[in-house]
Amino acid sequence: MSTGKEKILVIGAGGQIGVELCENLAKRYSNAQVIASDLKPAPQLEPYNYEQLDALDKDRLFEIVKKHQITQIYHLAALLSATGEQKPMMAWKLNMESLFHVLDLAKEKHIQKVYWPSSIAVFGPTTPRENTPQYTVMEPSTIYGISKQAGERWCEWYHQKHGVDVRSLRYPGLIGWKSAPGGGTTDYAVHIFHEALKTGRYECFLSAQTALPMMHMEDAIRATIEIMHAPFESIKIRGSYNLSGISFTPEQMANEIKAHLPNFSITYKPDFRQAIADSWPKSIDDREARQHWGWKEQYDLKGLVKNMLDNLKK
Ligand code: NAD
Ligand code: SER
After folding, report:
1. How far is the CA of 247 from the centre of ligand 2 (A)?
2. Is 268 in the active site?
3. pLDDT of residue 2
């Protein structure tokens, strides 16, 4: 793909994924080609064009698309699993309506390509939990998961009926050192590093043996950019692709941290997020992503823990 003419709008750019995605898009394109938007500005977004945008405001979104002659949208704004359970109607409204606004812009040919993330939250308690396949029982039990599952079906529908070039990944829990997580069930796996370095201890809101699929943010951003640059014909799933990195429990992660910080200690006090985690897969089978567009992760648990501690110590 020629990068020269692309103008890329990132919606929800100030969040955990957005700040790292903007940085990577700017490396691939240029700062001037990245238009970062969010409810309010963030210091990490200063290198790019910034536009204040409420993703529910369709007119303002259209105005920004016209003003910058946007060609692609990465739509990240959403309420995540934990916050979504506390504000269910708001989560449903934001997660669904904002997606329609973006898909409609593509349907009307104002933009050429859309990226929208789904999540492991599309699965539920009746889903097989080990090596969860791409196609399986999906009865999500959170509003967040229900909105992501419905979103996947709408993406597929817009592609089939209107030829919209929409691409999507079912991210596992994402772990990075450059930005803070925003209200998910997997957030412990980021908080634990900050507390390990600051106080030497951490109280985890999930139990010791709660295995969940996770991924280093660098791998997730690379997967995002790779799927968006893969040839049109290689994207055979227009709902959303399973995507797998590492799977581990809080205890396994704590033991790996102890290998670097021997005095680190962890306690467990599960809260309402335990029930959410218990409804999600422990590990993911992502063979379609590997076969269709060549996905492969780089980080294992050891490499992830070392990378997080090295960077956060700086
Ligand atoms: P985040 O909560 O860190 O960031 C979301 C951003 O959206 C925030 O900066 C927030 O200010 C912004 N936002 C909220 N309401 C908005 C509105 N009305 N208009 C415009 N912006 C608004 O979330 P994240 O972790 O960066 O996640 C981004 C996307 O990736 C979401 O769709 C999420 O469901 C998905 N995802 C994330 C993870 C993860 O582990 N981080 C895993 C699976 C899927
Ligand atoms: N990390 C996200 C969450 O916990 C998964 O979508 O909500």
Report:
1. 14
2. no
3. 56
